[in-house]
Amino acid sequence: MGTVRRRILECRPGRVDEKEIQVVRETPLTVRLNSRELVTLLCDGENFRELALGFLYNEGLLERETALGRVAVNEKTGEADVEAKVDERLLTAIHGKRLVTTGCGKGSVFYHVLDSVKAGRVQIAGDLRLPLSFLIEQGRVLAGRSETHRQTRGTHGAALLDRAGVVCFREDIGRHNALDKLAGWLLTERRDPAELALYTTGRVTSEVVLKAARLGTPIIASRAMPTELALQLAEQIGLTVVCALRGSSCLVVLGPERIDLEG
Amino acid sequence: MGTVRRRILECRPGRVDEKEIQVVRETPLTVRLNSRELVTLLCDGENFRELALGFLYNEGLLERETALGRVAVNEKTGEADVEAKVDERLLTAIHGKRLVTTGCGKGSVFYHVLDSVKAGRVQIAGDLRLPLSFLIEQGRVLAGRSETHRQTRGTHGAALLDRAGVVCFREDIGRHNALDKLAGWLLTERRDPAELALYTTGRVTSEVVLKAARLGTPIIASRAMPTELALQLAEQIGLTVVCALRGSSCLVVLGPERIDLEG
């Protein structure tokens, strides 16, 4: 991931030092679906393909079974053109609805996902159960994972975990982008999400739960804390929520039956 | 601000305690301008009026001189109806453009603001100059300011500072909402922004700089770090950027001429 060096002044009372810091890149990615411009995401300039596909998937415009055509990414101009057999009426309907959310990284999650949750049509399945000590240990591993975060303090990370450990780690300047990249990865890899846990460094707000619901992972673990609306949605769909996962302890907020507390 | 109590399990290896935590609320606010539904923001349910007005201002749909008509807020249903004399062509043009950004709290900042910056039409004025020790002290004050954040770890805060201290502090589940609330406050209070510094707990990404540019505050200070695009924009408009303001030190990243390093 790109970082840029900047000369700055480090200031304490009575003492000023000139110093060099590393700053994370931020760059636009314009996403078009079947030649239709949908959105410009601000991101770190990495994994454009995953980000574009995962964004479209999380917005409900692509499904796992959707036949993809050409996916053209131009890294220089920051453009992703995705061709896919999609329901053009859905595209029109969704494109007209905007929900600006709490997301670092991006903001639009669309009502029909929320509607599906409210209508009880989304229900998390899977008998994934993870030992508490494994989760805490993975929290420690993930906390030290990103060199870019260590250098810039400007990124959020997200990961998919199976029973053995991290299977995919992505980061970006926003927590939403990182989750979208995982969704894009999962679309291509076709791993069974019911066997995976989702980890994020960001706070668990409602749209993060909706993304987890789209992904189909039965457990979400976060370094940070949840909102109440997120927990209401998670409760409704049967998602296990673990928060404050900081490498030595955690809070099991919902769904402890998926966590082996003795393990 | 609303918090909700939740019973959870606090887990350390070999030890599980049942405990009660407080979780921050998250609730939708639908904003209509002249009966036109523009957006649904997810927020903490506080200061709906400021949030709606500040959002519209930061989106470029309201100006300081815009004549406001009726502003009706329904706290129960989460709706804000704003009547104002606006350029309907601009409303249509802006409404059609979506830029989803890195924002905790919300995401849409519109291109024409960015275009204005790029075209060199935005330039920060004002001879505000603050002593370093004052900034560091205010960072300490602001770090302890939010009871809700202390309880829930689920909010971002933002403030406007004059030479004497904090003149307005707002918080929300997203850093963008908090900044929009300040903009809404400033619209009503009509303080001169050239005499104020803007503080945020969140990272300084490009759209945060664009919000600062809209506000017209010559200094932005953040508890967190910037992105490179944010710094490029800030440099272009002559905005002073102070980061990592954590109560005992800070980094003056851009525009040290507005900081009295000896003071």
Could you write a compact summary of the structure shown?
The structure is a homodimer of 263-residue chains. The first copy, chain A, is of the alpha/beta class.
Descriptive notes:
The first copy, chain A, is of the alpha/beta class and 263 residues long. The first copy, chain A, has two domains: 27-109, Roll (Ubiquitin-like (UB roll)), CATH 3.10.20; 130-260, Cytidine Deaminase, domain 2. Helix content of chain A is 30%, strand content 33%. Chain A is built from eight helices and 15 strands. Chain A has helices at residues 48-58, 88-95, 111-118, 132-143, 147-152, 175-189, 206-215, 228-237; strands at residues 3-12, 15-24, 27-33, 36-43, 68-74, 79-84, 99-100, 130-131, 156-162, 165-172, 197-200, 219-222, 240-243, 250-254, 259-260. The first copy, chain A, has a six-stranded mixed β-sheet with strand order 10-9-11-12-13-14. In chain A, helix 1 packs across helix 6 (175-189). Chain A is globular and about 60 Å long. The two termini of chain A are 36 Å apart. The model of chain A is unreliable at 97-111 (pLDDT under 50). Chains A and B meet through strand 1, strand 2, strand 4, strand 7 and helix 4 of A and strand 1, strand 2, strand 4, strand 7 and helix 4 of B. Strand 14 (250-254) of chain A pairs antiparallel with strand 1 of chain B, so a sheet runs across the interface.
